[in-house]
């Protein structure tokens, strides 16, 4: 017996250490986090077989069992049985996180310590994230990458985890009646977490956090705070300060004088120009044609147009947001629709040179078209793939790929025949442009100038003062370039072997596109509200989600009883998506659509039953502990963060995110631990009081 007690004491210490490891790594390392979790769970199981049962019933057992059972049943009817059972095992192994936390936090002081360790570690992690995000912002990578930074995990996961921390800090700030010093700490933690959440640029986490914060304010009846917040949110979303303006400047001896501003109804991108004509792809407003400073024609498109380029003679190609391309022909000065076509894979970019149209697909490589009258005549180069940037001249093709490799191919009759240059440049930029026989390439440090010969590529100059250049415009003997700081440079041309800046003008905005036409510089300024994009039907992410949900509806109609199984949905989605929708996804960016597709209608109802039971548990605990210092603040935060998780799940598959669902089970387990240990503490106090009364009576 003494040996068994000694073993249990050692195991208790190991459980405590593993729990601390779990808490410290919850926001930054899934590997370390799972080491802590499984280490603690294993020790608790050993203690169970040594006749010390630390497990407690939660009232959720029925819902958990039904959830696992429906996962198993649908796995037998799955499109991929092995993968479905593998995911069943993952779901099953993570649910005991709830019971492990309850068992490890077996007294009230320890529960408080566990939360303080979690909150402190989250605070440190967020501080690191903010420092990383600041560098990310200064390097203009939000614009370049189109998303927030990923430090410890994928950015959507980072946003979801930061959301939990933000909600907990807010709950303690609102609910705790502590000293000014402690409240200042909660306020600082909330503010830093909120800034980090904004820096993550994850809209699903934003709306989830907003919903959680509004719930806390409603529960605490903070009407004086809630009312202006609601008004502010409405104003931000409805009255967005969106812009789409063409700015026209005259240039004389290096100085720029604005001549005219032309507002457009879409999102103006100067796409191509010739003679006195300027074509602007104006997103959902179609294609605009300008003659000089006057709008001469507008060509509507069935979906937002993101670019138009002149292919050959009077033929043009318009690229739509949904990966379709429209072949247009200029007839009597007007653009007329001729044909709709698509590339073999996920379209990334198109480049026309000398009558050839080079189509870069992100997944299926390079395609070259030579005849607009015969689109079926094409040459395929699947080995030239993972394309991130592409440019070409009459003799060379340059590719910068996802492996950060710059490659230059020699062209034979317009087709890539031999790779004559290859070099790695670790950079988030990689913007490049052929101008004459020179290749301009920008990395993190400088602008590099390469001369391309028949069989070689030579670095001839570099300039560290020119950074983040990403657009060029050449007309006659004048060459302009723009960077992400709003600087518009005129570079000496012909370039020869030297990069020389003739003049630089600072614009009060970062141009979305530039063009030099008839001695005038045209730039477009496009500004869209990131918050307002939540309700924008033509935001690229929203378009993707709507396509996914439409395909999900088709799948549910065909597989209503058992779904297709809890599997990676890429191959399933390929069957049901539109023919021109080339994006591939492993999930449906929505918890509820995903469960309907994966588990069918009965399985979806079971998941809803589980969610309702968890929510009722959080509500019950908050009601029981709402007068208890500290525990009530945690219970309020846990309840609100679960609501936030459910709201975020309207636009994200966060239930299937390993780190996020671990956080859900952890916060639930710790909430139950607060409840059980406080009740035990309260019962012990009542017992002690009763014993004292009996003793006094004696």
SSE layout and pairings?
Elements (H helix, E strand, L loop, with lengths): L1 H24 L4 H20 L11 H16 L4 H14 L2 H8 L3 H31 L2 H5 L9 H21 L4 H21 L2 H17 L3 H16 L4 E10 L2 E9 L5 E6 L2 E5 L5 E5 L2 E6 L5 E8 L2 E6 L4 E7 L2 E8 L5 E7 L2 E6 L3 E5 L8 E4 L5 E6 L3 E6 L3 E8 L2 E10 L7 E4 L2 E5 L4 E6 L4 E7 L5 E7 L2 E6 L3 E5 L9 E6 L6 E5 L2 E8 L12 H19 L11 H7 L14 H35 L5 H18 L9 H40 L1
Helix pairs in contact: 1-2, 1-6, 2-5, 3-4, 3-14, 5-16, 6-8, 6-9, 6-16, 8-9, 8-10, 8-15, 10-15, 12-14, 14-15, 14-16, 15-16
Question: What this model shows, in words?
Answer:
With 698 residues, the protein is of the alpha+beta class. It has two domains: 55-239 and 540-684, no CATH class; 243-436 and 519-531, YVTN repeat-like/Quinoprotein amine dehydrogenase (Methylamine Dehydrogenase, Chain H). Strands 2-1-28-27 form a four-stranded antiparallel β-sheet, with no helix packed on it. Strands 3-4-5-6 form a four-stranded antiparallel β-sheet, with no helix packed on it. Strand 9 (325-331) and strand 10 form a beta hairpin. The longest helix has 40 residues, at 658-697. The model has no long low-confidence stretch (mean pLDDT 92).
Number of domains: 2
| Shape field | elongated
Largest sheet, if any? 4 strands, antiparallel
Based on CA atoms alone, the radius of gyration comes out at: 30 Å
Overall residue-averaged pLDDT value? 92
Strand order of the largest sheet: 2-1-28-27
Low-confidence stretches: none
Q: Figure out the total of helices.
A: 16
Helix content: 40-55%
Distance between the termini: 37 Å
The proportion of strand residues reads: 25-35%
Q: What is the count of β-strands?
A: 28
**Helix/strand/pairing category:** alpha+beta
